[in-house]
Design goal:
It is built from one helix and four strands, in the order E-E-E-H-E. It is mainly β. The relative contact order is 0.31. The model has no long low-confidence stretch (mean pLDDT 92).
Length: 69
């Protein structure tokens, strides 16, 4: 896989919550560390997203906001 995004986190699909239009995908990228994404139901089906499968969370953003307390 070649991709222009600089932030790609490899992990395992921990949960899939399909709705009528969108699907919530939870990817565990490290023990106790999860990334959650909402994708279309069609995309989830086309990618074969299922619990236990390997997947990548690819982050492409023009802005990343950092905050502290």
């Amino acid at each position: 896989m070649k991709i222009s995004a600089r932030n790609s986190l490899k992990g395992t699909v921990k949960a899939v919550h399909a709705g009528a239009v969108n699907t919530e995908v939870v990817i565990e990228v490290a023990p106790g560390v999860e990334v959650v994404s909402i994708i279309t139901k069609d995309s989830a089906e086309a990618l074969g997203i299922a619990e236990g499968k390997e997947a990548y969370a690819v982050i492409k953003a023009s802005n990343v906001i950092v905050a502290v307390e």
